Amino acid sequence: MAEQILRVEHLEKSYQKKHVLHDINFHVDKGEVVTLLGPSGSGKSTLIRCLNGLEEYQKGTITFEGKEIVPTEKNWQQIRQKIGMVFQSYDLFPNLTVMDNILLGPTKVQKQDKFAAKKEALDLLKRVGLQDYANVYPRQLSGGQKQRVAIVRALALHPDFMLFDEVTASLDPEMVRGILNIIQDLADVDHMTMIVVTHEMNFAQQIADKVIFLEDGHILEQTPSKQFFSAPQTKRAQEFLDSMDF
Amino acid sequence: MDHSGISVLFEGTNFQRLLGGLWVTVRIAAVALIIGLILGIMLGVLRTFKNRPLRVILRLYLEFFRIVPTVVLLFLFYYILPRQMNFNLPGDQLATLVFALWVAAEMSDIVRGALISVPQHQKESGKAIGLNRYQLYRYVLIPQAISLEIPATINLATRVIKTTSLLMLISVMDVINIGQQIIEANNHSHPTGVFWVYGLIFLFYFLIDYPLSWWAKRLEKKRLERANG
Question: Fewer CB in 10 Å around end: N or C, chain A?
Answer without folding.
Answer: N
